[in-house]
């Protein structure tokens, strides 16, 4: 599914930038939120992250990883777009997206996790896709506010093509890359562990000691 550059012009640059700014505002807030364990704001992203870990692992087949990542992200960004029917939700979602991703990054790797998030090549594909989905969601919200449901439905087909021909191809490329990196890095770690694996008896003894209750 190649990107159709002819529909790029339908994305208002102003709302793309606003979505990005609100995203980074959420990222900035995420560090103190995570460190102070503000449960009202950390509960949802940590629950989602737990569910993701329960659904996939580096040992899974590449195809399962790819399908899960593409489906998960495509659904999330579709919600961003459709939230425009509720007018004010896209900007709110832009901020919360940054907050949620930031909380997960901080929980996983502390302050360095925020920097690592931006250096991840997968993010270079997923974040622009997210900002586009939020921008067209905002445009849909403006149409809803000014013309009601009929106004929103009038612009919906053109904006939906942006999702179909811009957002989805970016997510497709991101899922291809991320699934491949997970398999490569996960497989490398697995091989390293196997190469230096102690005998079964020693491993079991060590595990028993590590899980033994300490008074």
**Would you list the SSEs in sequence order as H and E?**
HHHHHHH
Domain count, please report it: 1
Q: Termini distance?
A: 59 Å
How does the major sheet shape up? none
Shape: globular
Radius of gyration: 21 Å
> Low-confidence spans: pLDDT under 50, at least 5 residues?
188-215
What fraction of the residues are assigned to beta strands by DSSP? under 5%
DSSP helical segment count: 7
Q: Summarize model confidence as the mean pLDDT.
A: 86
> Helix fraction?
over 70%
What is the structural class?
mainly alpha
Give the number of DSSP strands. 0
Describe the fold and architecture:
With 215 residues, the protein is mainly alpha-helical. α1 crosses α6, α2 crosses α4 and α3 packs antiparallel against α6. The longest helix has 75 residues. It is globular and about 45 Å long. The chain starts with 12 loop residues before the first helix and ends with a helix.
Write the layout of secondary structure elements.
Blueprint: H1 13-35, H2 39-55, H3 62-82, H4 89-109, H5 111-119, H6 121-195, H7 200-211
Helix pairs in contact: 1-4, 1-6, 2-4, 3-6, 4-5, 4-6
Descriptive key words:
7 helices; mainly alpha; single chain; 0% strand; disordered C terminus; 215 residues; globular
Summarize the structure.
This protein is mainly alpha-helical and 215 residues long. It contains seven helices and no strands.
């Amino acid at each position: 599914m190649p990107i159709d550059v002819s529909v790029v012009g339908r994305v208002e640059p102003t709302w793309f930038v606003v979505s990005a700014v609100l995203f980074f505002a959420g990222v900035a807030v995420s560090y103190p939120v995570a460190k102070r364990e503000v449960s009202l704001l950390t509960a949802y992203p940590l629950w989602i992250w737990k569910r993701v870990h329960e659904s996939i692992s580096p040992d899974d087949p590449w195809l399962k990883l790819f399908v899960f990542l593409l489906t998960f992200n495509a659904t999330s960004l579709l919600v961003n777009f459709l939230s425009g029917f509720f007018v004010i939700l896209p900007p709110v979602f832009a901020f919360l997206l940054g907050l949620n991703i930031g909380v997960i990054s901080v929980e996983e790797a502390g302050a360095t996790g925020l920097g690592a998030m931006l250096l991840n090549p997968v993010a270079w594909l997923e974040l622009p896709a997210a900002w586009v989905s939020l921008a067209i969601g905002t445009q849909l919200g403006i149409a809803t506010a000014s013309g009601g449901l009929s106004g929103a439905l009038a612009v919906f087909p053109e904006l939906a093509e942006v999702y179909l021909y811009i957002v989805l191809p970016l997510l497709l490329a991101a899922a291809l890359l991320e699934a491949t990196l997970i398999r490569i890095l996960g497989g490398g770690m697995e091989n390293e562990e196997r190469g230096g694996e102690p005998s079964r008896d020693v491993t079991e003894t060590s595990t028993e000691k590590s899980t033994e209750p300490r008074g």
